[in-house]
What we know:
Layout: H1 3-10, E1 14-23, E2 26-36, E3 41-45, H2 52-59, E4 67-72, E5 75-76, H3 82-87, E6 90-92, H4 105-113, H5 131-143, H6 159-172, E7 177-181, H7 189-202, E8 207-211, H8 215-221, E9 224-229, E10 232-237, H9 239-244, H10 246-262
Parallel strand pairs: 3-8, 3-9, 6-7, 7-8
Antiparallel strand pairs: 1-2, 1-4, 4-5, 9-10
Helix pairs in contact: 4-5, 4-6, 5-6, 6-7
Amino acid sequence: MNAVQSQAASGFALELRDLRKNFGKTEIIRGANLQVRPGERVAIIGPNGAGKSTLFNLISGRFEPSSGEIHLNGRRIDGLPPYEINRLGLARSFQVSNLFTRLSVFENLRCAVLWSMGHRYAFWKFLADLHDANDRAEQVLEMVGLDKRRDHLAMNLTYAEQRALEIGITIAGGSQVVLLDEPTAGMSKSETRRFVQLIRQVTEGRTLLTVEHDMGVVFGLADKIAVLVYGEVIAFDTPEAVRANARVQEAYLGSVLAEQQAQGH
């Protein structure tokens, strides 16, 4: 059964089944369940220490679950190394930008597309001759709005530009499930507004999971919100339903909204 057939059989792009993760005697993820349909944009929110980054690390293969299952397009992926999960169609960004700082913007993007386009290491090949990879890198460059910064070193970009480049790298390989870890952290209000629009554009037609603390971003971007508290998904619904959920208000949302309103967000 191929990936398309598997997805059709399950109906979900990503599914977590009773997922658990212990570090020693400490249980961080405690039976998390989640079912994300193809093309949905899902924001994962929760208090500090809820296990959001751990959940992303489990899904992307950086951590192995203590128990439970993770399915990508109907195929079980828990226990696979990150590179295999990526080749099956899942890509992620990190809280801290992870770029080749001494390569140009274009070179960073070209590196990201090589494997997905069938190019492997070969000392007799010149990258300049890989026209399909170069064309794809140029397309992504324009998508993320960095075409005017094409030949600049990644280390010389502004913070917002580096985050845009990282999103470009994340989507460059054609992955249909994208994980973004706090993509707007550290940005000004105007940068955040532009970045939310960029995320909407580049993830059109893809499945998106994002960890985000800015409730304005969450409610402006997500089709659904998953609320993670003490390692459990206590709610998964539309933004309107989550906002009105008494359990969510008690556990997390009310205090966060009040804090952000006080700060002028």
